[in-house]
Amino acid sequence: MLSWVDFAVVSLIVQKFGGSSLADADSVKRVARRIVATKAEGHQVVVVVSAMGDTTDELLDLAEQVSPKPPARELDMLLTSGERISMALLAMAISDLGEDARSYTGSQAGLITDSAHGAARIIDVTPGRIAEALNEGAIPIVAGFQGVAQDTKDITTLGRGGSDTTAVALAAALEASVCEIYTDVDGVFSADPRVVPAARKLEFVTYEEMLELAAVGAKVLHLRCVEYARRFDLPIHVRSSFSQREGTYVLSPEAIETAIAEGRAMEQPIISGVAADVNDAKVTVVGVPDEPGRAAAIFRALADAGINVDMIVQNVSAASTGRTDVTFTCPQGSAAKATDALESGSGAIGFESLVIDDQIAKVSLVGAGMRSHPGVSATFFAALAEASINVEMISTSEIRISVVTRVDDAKRAVQALHTAFGLDADGEAVVYGGTGR
Amino acid sequence: MLSWVDFAVVSLIVQKFGGSSLADADSVKRVARRIVATKAEGHQVVVVVSAMGDTTDELLDLAEQVSPKPPARELDMLLTSGERISMALLAMAISDLGEDARSYTGSQAGLITDSAHGAARIIDVTPGRIAEALNEGAIPIVAGFQGVAQDTKDITTLGRGGSDTTAVALAAALEASVCEIYTDVDGVFSADPRVVPAARKLEFVTYEEMLELAAVGAKVLHLRCVEYARRFDLPIHVRSSFSQREGTYVLSPEAIETAIAEGRAMEQPIISGVAADVNDAKVTVVGVPDEPGRAAAIFRALADAGINVDMIVQNVSAASTGRTDVTFTCPQGSAAKATDALESGSGAIGFESLVIDDQIAKVSLVGAGMRSHPGVSATFFAALAEASINVEMISTSEIRISVVTRVDDAKRAVQALHTAFGLDADGEAVVYGGTGR
C-alpha cells in the first residue's frame, strides 16, 4: 500500500506527542530520535507536545490542596507549566542528537485565543517565530493545549483534547502536508480491540466519520481537533509512537476518492466502525401532559442548567390519561443536576415522576457508506435481534445508527454488529467503490 | 523600638517568598494569610515568589537525565516552570481568602533582560500590568528569577539569587517603600548562630556591609540584589516567614544616621558581624622568577580560564634564588581548573611547582565603623593570637578585614572575634554615633 502523503518531496510535517508518549526521560529521548529521523528524511518538522505522563493530574491535585475552587485564570497558569517542562526536555534531548531544537510557549508560537479560561477557543494563529525557526533549519517544539488571550494577554488553556487542536491549528496555519498525532494505539480501529479482538485498524476515515466516532465513545481524537482539520482540509495521521507502522488517516471524502482512483488505497468499506459508550444515563420524565410546550419546558430547563442532552424519545400518548413519557440521555455526571433542574421547573412541566437509569450503554455503527446503502438498518437490527439484545432507544444521523441497550449487553452488541458488517479482520469486508454522497 | 518604615501611611510593599517558605500546600496557604494580613493593614502588596521547595533541583535532575549538556535556552524554559507553579498556587490560596490575586510571569511583569541564558542581567523593568493590577485593588504575584530577552524575546533566568533581585528590581521600578525578603531565618546575624550561639540579630546594616558580608560567606542575601538596592536606595527588610518579628533592615548610611538622629534606632556598633567561608582553596605557585610580568602572566592565565581569584599574596623574594612564591585563593571547585590553566601557561610563567591546599577558611570581620576606628586591626589580631590561631594570608577593604586560617581553626576564630568585639548578645556592644565616613 502506498502512503497517503507523498514523502518523496520535501514537506512540512507537524508531529504531536501526547503525555503517554512522554512518560519519563527515556520516552522523551525515544521521541527525540523519532523526530530527528523524520528530519533526516528531508522534511521540515514542527513538534507539539502535551505535558508528561501524570503531570497535569499532579498539578490539579496541588491546586485542590490550596483551594477548593481555584480561579480559572490561575488554574490555566498552573497547568501550562506542564507543557513547558516536556517541551524544554524534548528540545534538550533533540539538541543532544545534534539538531537545533527550540521550544516555544503557546503565546510565543502565536496561538491567540479568546479569554475563556479552561476552554479557550483559538481565534487566530500567527506562527511567525515558528516559521522563522524552520527557515533557520531548527526544529520548533511548541507547547500544546495553551494560548494567550487576545484582549487580556493572559495565559489560556484550550480544554480537553487541546494539544491535538494546537497541532492541527498550527499545521493549518503553516500549510503543513500532514499533522501526525502520536498516541499509544496504532490508529483508529473498527471497534475497541479489548471488546472485539478481531477489530482491525482502519486505513482511513473521513472527517465526518471520525467526528461521529469521537462523539459516540471512540477516544482516539477529540471532536474539536477533527472539526478544525475538516475546516482546513488538513490530513491527520493518527499513529503509535511505539511502532513505525502506518496508522489511520483522517481525510476528506474527495481525498479518499482520489487515492482510490489512483490506486493508492483500497476500496472503502461501507462501515468504518462500531463503538459503545457506557458513560451516559437515561432519564425518564414520567406522566407529562401531552400538550404543546411541555417538551419545550423540559429542554429549556435542561439547557439553562447546562446539561448536554444526547438522545431524546417521546412515547405515544396513552389516550386514557392524555399523558406521555419523555426520555433522554445525558452524561452520568450530569444526571443529578438534570433531575434538580427538572424538579425546580416541575410547575411548568407538570410531570408525575422522574426515573434515572445509569445501567445503559449507547452502541453505535458509523460509516459514510450508509448513505447509499439502505440495507444497513435492516442488517443492524437483525444482528441485535439474533443476539437477543433489547433496544431501548434509537437515534440516527446520515452516517450513524445509535441504540441504547442494557450496559451488560453492550459488549455482545458491539461484537455482533462487528461480525454482521464483515468488519472482523478474518471476515470479508463489505466494500464499495462508488461516491455514495 | 520604632519600625524603619512608617506603616501608618498607605505604602507599597514588595514581599518576596523563597522556596523554603513555599515547601508545600500548607506553607502556600500560610504565606497567603500573611500577604492578605499585610493588605488588610491598608498597604498595597506586590509578591515575588521562587519555585516551591526542591522543584528546581528536581527539574535539573530531569534535564540531566535527557541530556548531559542541555542548551541554556532550554534549561531556562524548563526551570521557569517552577515559579509558574508556585505563583499560580499562591494566587489560588489568596483568592480563597477573598482577595483578588493575579499571577504574572517575568515577561508579563516587564522584567526585560539581556539574552545571557542562565545568568541574564535585568536591563529594564516595565511593570505596566503590575501597576494596573494594583490600581484595580488586586494583589499581583510575580514569578521571580525569570525575565524575557529584549532582542530574542526568549525566556531567560537571572541565575543564583535571581528571585531576590527580581523583588528588588520590581520594588525600585514601582517606587515601593520597602522590599521584604522572607526567608527561614530571623534576619542578618552578627555571626552564624550555629557557630556562635550568642550571635545576635542585627537591627540594620548598610548596603556596603551587607555586600561585604555576602561576599565573605553570609548566605542571607545575594550580592546582585544588594547592589541593585544600593543603586536605587531601596530599603530591604530581611525577615522570617515563620515569625512576626522584625528582621534586619539593609539601608543607606544616611537613612541609618537619620533614624538614629530621630531616635528611631539605637546607635550603630562599629562592627556588624563575623563570618567564615570554608569553600575556598589556596593555590601556591612556587618558585616564580621575581621579574616584571610574571605575576601578570599568572593572573592572565587564570582570568582567561574564568577563575574567580579572591585573595593574593606574594612573598618577599629570596635573594639567593631570585625566585618568589605567589599564593592566591579561589573557589574549591575552580582549583583544578586553575592548576590546569597554570600548567598550560607554565612556559610564560616559569614556576617550579604548584601546591593546592583546600583545608583553609577565610574568616572576616565586617563593619562600617572600621573606617573611623584605627584600633580595630589591633583588636582583631590580638584576639586571634590569644586563641593561638595562625594567620596565613591577610586582605582588607575599608570596612572589612579577612584572614586565611586552617579550616579547623575557623570556628574558634569566629567565636574569639565575636567576643573580642563585644558582639555576644550578653556582652557590651562597641558603639559609636558619629558619621565615620
UniProtKB/TrEMBL annotation, chains A, B:
Pathway(s) where this gene product acts:
Amino-acid biosynthesis; L-methionine biosynthesis via de novo pathway; L-homoserine from L-aspartate: step 1/3; Amino-acid biosynthesis; L-threonine biosynthesis; L-threonine from L-aspartate: step 1/5
Domain annotation ACT: ranges: 283-359, 365-437
In the record, what terms sit under GO molecular function? aspartate kinase activity; ATP binding
Among its keywords, does the record have Nucleotide-binding?
yes
State its Enzyme Commission number(s): 2.7.2.4
Q: Which CDD domains match?
A: AAK_AKii-LysC-BS, ACT_AK-LysC-DapG-like_2, ACT_AKii-LysC-BS-like_1
Q: Which GO terms describe its biological process?
A: homoserine biosynthetic process; lysine biosynthetic process via diaminopimelate; threonine biosynthetic process
Q: Which reaction is this enzyme known to catalyze?
A: L-aspartate + ATP = 4-phospho-L-aspartate + ADP
Q: What is this protein called?
A: aspartate kinase
GO cellular component terms, semicolon-separated: cytosol
Gene3D superfamilies listed in its UniProt record: Acetylglutamate kinase-like, VC0802-like
Keywords associated with the record: Amino-acid biosynthesis, ATP-binding, Kinase, Lysine biosynthesis, Nucleotide-binding, Transferase
Q: Which Pfam families does the entry link to?
A: AA_kinase, ACT, ACT_9
Tell me which family the UniProt entry assigns to this protein. Answer: Belongs to the aspartokinase family.
In the UniProt record, does the keyword Transferase occur?
A: yes
